[in-house]
Amino acid sequence: MRQYQRWLVAITVVVLTTGWLGAGLAVKVAEDELRSKLLLRTATAAAIVNQERVGRLTATPADTGTADYEYLRQQLTAARSLNPDCRFVYLLKMVNGQVVFLMDSEPETSTDYSPPGSPYNAASEALRHIFLGSKPFVEGPLADEWGVWVSGIAAVRDPADGRVIAVLGMDIDAREWQSGVQNARLIVFGVTAAVLSVIFIVFYALHISAVAARKVYLAEKQAKETAESMSQAKSQFLAYLSHEVRTPVTGILGLGELLESTRLDGQQRDYVRAIAYSARSLLTVLNDVLDFSKIQAGKMTVESVNFEFWKVLTGVNTILQATAANKGISLTITIDPAIPLVVCGDPVRLQQVLLNIAGNAIKFTDAGGVDIKAECLRLDETAVNVKVTVRDTGIGLTQDEINKLFQPFAQTEGANTRKYLGSGLGLSISSSLIKIMGGEFGVDSAKGIGSSFWFTVTLQTAQGNDVINDIMLPDARNEANLLPRWASEPVDRAPDRAGDVLIVEDNSVNQQVFKLQLKHLGLTADLAATGQEAVLMAAKANYKLILMDCGLPLMDGFATTQAIREYESLTGRHTPIIALTANSLAGDREKCLAAGMDDYLAKPVSGKELRHIIERWLTLESEDGIDRVVLGQLKELADSGQADISLFIDAFLEELPLLMAKLKQAVLQEDTRQVSDAAHGLKSMSATIGAKRLAELFSHLEQQAQRGKMEAAKALMAKVEDECRQVGSALKNAASRL
Asked: Is residue 561 within 8 Å of residue 594, measured between CB atoms?
């Protein structure tokens, strides 16, 4: 079997195996997502059920026709209409150790209708346990006398003592559930088939190429000439690639320069400069691709030039001091005076390794400091052997993590990956560079204590240079001189008059594009290229909105957002922050929201998308006390059932006066227990619907009642009643703007 055929078989096996494993993963992800959605809908429906009316039912046929029974029937019917994929919605109750039906959303004329008090014989142990206080869950697919279902189960609790008084169930036909899972599996199989098709096409092309090479080999009858011919073909291909890409890019740059020399207005000149910048960036990418090809081919070489060793270390210190200062940790360097002033080697690669190691040390250290130390291990007339150690007081590593630390694309721990990010290539590249320079690379670490990364390298001594007897090292007195101006002293980075929007983006072309898009929307914008700069500007100016790039250098958009939120927690201000990211994978939005951002835009961002996000947030500036995140989740729930969010709001507003009447009566009677229980229930109900400020008032009222301070509770009632009068219109206005 020919070589390419063996490769084809091996790759086919790998792709098929990956597709099979991917299908299993896709099925798990699909099932998890379906379970999460069903659980959310069930828990929401259970939270809206009127607990007092449930408590008054007896779970007997006598309940039929009562006001409480009919009211709750309407609630279950509404919940079922909001969830068209749901077949059954029902309430269960535990009576004398047996699970019985309390209420069923089915019409009484239906053959599937279960009257109050009829036993639910298919109750599982998990379902029975929820009556003892277990959390909501999803079970199934499960077969019973009504068919095969996937059921969402959630408890309805007594607001007074938290006791489970009933259980709400939602049943979805298992065929629809399994259809969604099957679609996920088919998608993965389709992708696998597409990948295999591409592979077969590529290998067919390689086969044709191999046949042609074989004909050349047979024609010339010399293996050496064939090898030389293939090498020449590869060189020609790389030269062709470089020529074909560089030629049009060069033309773009040249024409851009000519265009810039003509008479242009300011905006046109900005456009031309942006085009030139993008073209130069494309050239940089091309150079990186060619360099990577050299590394993979084992053709990476290092230079041997004279340089000042101490300047490399102090240069690294200068570059990274800002990052260390921003995290509140120290960064120091110590250089052995025995190391010669001028040595011979590759300063660029040496600095690359140091920046990577020290940058990682700062990234993974939240308290303490990072120390860079250079020692002279051996010195003679021709060479000096240097050991550089970077010691930190960070999170540390276990031995298992150290073992896989230098593997390409490897991260030591999933949690660290989420917190610190990174490609996982840096240490692998650094280790390879040190080996190319003839040195060794290692690490000593203890979990929770810190790490020491070290490498040794032999540098040639430059002729005509004496060994340093003394060298001025940075200390507590002159370390600040190495800090960038923004980090070492207060700087007024905000303009005299702040714009409406702060754009935090390190790419200058993207900065100008966003700025012009905002200008077309009638908004002014300020620019920040780094996270540190954005924190300073946000602290000084009261921006209406911040567009935050997630992939900022050094201090990324997530860390920048957290720093802004920490500052705002001291001032009570909250500026909407919109994430800008090139990623658009599942979970990216949730990750941005978890970091403190308010919304999410995936690059490239069109003017229409930007207008939509601006209109969503800049029209919601009034302090109306509504949590739009919660309200948005309720709207998504309503939309999934092809209903309107006003159903939830109306149900809340219908219950609010009844519960408020009981609360006021308890306050007048100075019944601290009743006040505390009523306020607790109203707090939960208000938070569920998104009435954030009202929920906070009920929380304060609950606390005062628990402390026995009824006079303070009575004083709070005026604010509570005033907020109750306004919350209805605030909720409806906020919902109309979503």
From this structure: no
